[in-house]
Write a structure and sequence with these properties.
By secondary structure, the chain is α/β, with parallel strands linked by helices. It is built from 11 helices and 15 strands. α7 packs parallel to α8 and α9 packs across α10.
């Protein structure tokens, strides 16, 4: 059954708000390359409004504000969010798939992990109550010392497109559990499910301003968050190039930054290995999430005595991977998230060939499903 693509605004101060400059970004289904909707595009003006809303959430209703609410109170909201996500799993998984191209089975698994993550941090939030004002033993009884855990304040959370809602949850859930007010900036390439998190927050009556969601372009929204004087911390997952810019902006105000920039970990195969198992895990590492994952096995080091046999089996396993519309049952490999990323991958292949590499399998764009309708209804605002 077809589902509509929700037309959302920015989520600020507990409600939907049109971007002040009225900018929007098209949603392109990477499977069909068709425009199936659009998302709001925040700019510096919207960032100012969201930061003010987040800061107000920390000080509103003196004595009952989010920052000093009990862990049990915060846990109640986190569990309510988890329950709503679980209820909406079929729709959210399908929306994630048409937004970023990953196989539906993976999107469904991601939604399960989203639920589990909110529940996990709900438990930790409750545990904070017992740790508040923990006494520290001192040699001199004249003095008393305590450890008091307090939220850092307003946090900016900038996430990539390969795990849109799950990666957002990895940052949002702990931030809210700790009593921070958060501003989530999802990738402009995949923001649809993150915006639906805003609707979930509305439905569970999360206090206004505790979570704000601002899709938008990096130079217009992300940069403004990184340099904003009233953002107390930044957490970013993405490229090293962007991280350098974020650290530079944060350094001007000596602002703490947490960065997750991925890696290029090799898989090393020795001669005494179970070759079939090693091939299976190599394939998994290469192609899970359509190969767009920071832990991808992008380098393979094989003992020369088994190299020929290993590569032969690697090609045979690759030939059996079902490449299709990611909504189809049994799909194991869907499309690259965007034309820009596709061109980047093709450039890698071209450069490798020019340097003498041999392509054992693939290397070209499969024409198996492009142009077909995926059963998702959408409209483009003009």
């Amino acid at each position: 059954m077809a589902i509509p693509i929700p037309s959302r605004q920015l989520f600020i101060n507990g409600d939907w708000a049109e971007p002040l400059l009225k900018k929007r970004i098209p949603i392109i289904n990477p499977t069909t390359e068709e425009i199936i909707g659009d998302i709001p595009a925040a700019t510096a003006e919207d960032v100012d409004v969201a930061v003010q809303a987040a800061r107000s959430a920390l000080t509103r209703n003196k004595g009952k504000d989010w920052a000093f609410a009990s862990g049990a109170v915060r846990a109640k909201y986190l569990r309510a969010i988890a329950a709503k996500i679980k209820e909406r799993k079929p729709v959210l998984a399908k929306l994630e798939t048409v937004d970023c191209g990953k196989p539906l089975s993976e999107s469904e698994a991601d939604m399960d992990d989203v639920v589990g993550c909110f529940e996990y941090y709900a438990d930790l939030a409750e545990g904070l109550d017992a740790k508040q004002k923990a006494p520290i033993s001192l040699p001199m009884k004249t003095f008393k010392s305590y450890v008091i855990k307090e939220p850092i304040g307003v946090v900016a959370l900038i996430v990539p497109w390969n795990y849109p809602l799950l990666m957002a949850t990895w940052k949002v859930a702990p931030a809210l559990a700790a009593g921070c007010a958060a501003i989530l900036k999802p990738s402009e390439l995949a923001s649809a499910t993150c915006l639906e998190l805003g609707e979930v927050c509305r439905e569970v009556d999360l206090p206004a301003g505790v979570l704000n969601i601002l899709p938008g372009l990096g130079p217009e929204a992300g940069a403004s968050l990184a340099s904003h004087p009233h953002v107390d911390k930044i957490s970013f997952t993405g490229s090293t190039v962007t991280a350098v810019k974020i650290m530079t902006a944060a350094a001007q105000r000596v602002k703490p930054v947490t960065l997750e920039l991925g890696g290029k970990g090799p898989i090393v195969v020795f001669e005494d290995v179970d070759i079939d198992k090693a091939v299976e895990w190599t394939i998994f590492g290469c192609f899970y999430t359509n190969g767009q994952i920071c832990s991808a096995t992008s380098r393979l080091i094989v003992h020369e005595s088994i190299a020929a046999e290993f590569l032969d089996r690697l090609v045979k396993w690759s030939e059996n991977i079902k490449i299709s519309d990611p909504l189809e049952e049994g799909c194991k490999l869907g499309p690259i998230v965007s034309r820009g990323q596709y061109e980047k991958v093709m450039n890698f292949i071209s450069n490798a060939k020019s340097e003498g590499a041999t392509i054992l399998y693939g290397g070209n764009r499969p024409k198996l499903w492009f142009g077909r309708c995926c059963g998702i209804e959408g409209s483009r605002k003009m």
